[in-house]
Amino acid sequence: EGAGPQEYTLIKMELLQPFPKVLKSLEGKKVNFVAATLRPETMYGQTNFWVHPDITYIAFETADDGIYICTRRAARNMSYQGFTKKDGQYEVVLEAVGQDLLGAAVKSPLTVYPKIYALPMLTIKEDKGTGIVTSVISDSPDDYAAFVDLQKKPAFREKYGITDEMVLPFEAVPILEIPEYGNLSAIHVYDKLKIQSQNDKDKLLQAKEMVYLKGFYDGVLLVGEFKGKKIQDVKKNLQTKLVNENGAKIYYE
Ligand code: A2H
Question: Residue 37: which domain range?
Fold first, then answer.
């Protein structure tokens, strides 16, 4: 990585009723899970979001945007970026392990699905972003692999208390056309490389290398107000749109 800080789009995903047990004390308040992404233009196709079952998350008070849920590390970073009342300080409301947040329902910006769920991903890194990850199975091989693991394995769903309706009704949405890879590029490379699961590290790395650069330079949006435009030309506009519509913030680390 380069010397400068990385800019992320912080996607706000509003917690819906019923709140998970560990978050019951927050009922009546505005609560958002926040996820750092490099691909705001993919939010049209979000099918779920990811939480690591074993990572500890916190809920903290922001200055003027209700409660955010993310890792403590991300909250600390945000506290130096104007997210909290006092610079460098964040008020922890509660702590919860990812396991207890699974199955939470949220409303996320742009996606065609009005309600999506927190599902388990075991490859989330604690020291990157917020520890919460948006999931776009049409365009991210990591997301598609983790999603298929849940779709194909009822025992895996059961282990984490994930019900069928949190997974089975959701399908990949064609949102970007990438030359050679079509309009569901993650599925294309997953099949082509015969990826077996989210733990297929080497193949997933290869899959990512195949789709990402090409997607960025030659990908064309198939939906929304920038339909027909190249991603590299509208990525910034889309980020601005999300921020202006109160669906996202800018976050650095
Ligand atoms: B991206 P970079 Cl469609 N652990 O968003 C693992 N992965 C994480 C993470 C964490 N703690 N925090 C963020 N990420 C993911 C969308 C997307 C992303 C698509 C395609 C590629 C892609 C939907 N998931 O990322 O190391 C997030 O997933 C390709 C790398 O900072 C975030 O953007 O480059 C990306 O990794 C940030 O990774």
Answer: 7-172+230-252
The confidence score (pLDDT) of residue 4 equals 85
- Residue 24 CA to ligand 1 center (angstroms) comes to 29
Has residue 2 got a pLDDT over 70?
no
Reported as half-sphere exposure (CB side, CA atoms, 13 A), residue 177 has a value of: 9
How many domains does the chain divide into? 1
CATH number of domain containing 97: 3.90.740.10
Q: How far is the CA of 138 from the centre of ligand 1 (A)?
A: 14
Interface TM-score (ipTM) > 0.85: yes
**pLDDT tens, position by position, 5-21:** 999 999 999 999 999 99
Is residue 50 included in any domain, yes or no?
A: yes
Evaluate whether residue 141 is within a structural domain. Answer: yes
Q: Which residue minimizes the CA distance to atom 21 of ligand 1?
A: 140
